[in-house]
Write a structure and sequence with these properties.
mainly beta, seven-stranded mixed beta sheet, four-stranded antiparallel beta sheet
Amino acid sequence: QVQLVESGGRLVQAGDSLKLSCAASGHPFSNYAMGWFRQAPSKEREFVAAIGWSGESTFYADSVNGRFTVSRDNAKSTLYLQMNSLEVEDSAVYYCAASVRLGATMPSSYDAWGPGTQVTVSS
């Protein structure tokens, strides 16, 4: 099974930009469709974005559409999430996840998860 590790989370101000990375190892990265989820304190884990095996298809939650961009570099086995115009409501632990299903939005559809990286947006 693929192993995933996120990085790039930190404290930023509202309106700032931030790019998260997710490094994959242990299994061919290109075999998986990938997703980003986030979880704020006392809230359920929610879908943020997903991308197909070669990056040709992308999917976004309404709350981030137009502000966030998901991408991948299969040669580097790395998934990215570019986040622009960050809002306080974007504060959460961000997780990357791997799935055999394209465009899945439910956490139960993902087979492997990273430990998460904290993003905090201050006003």
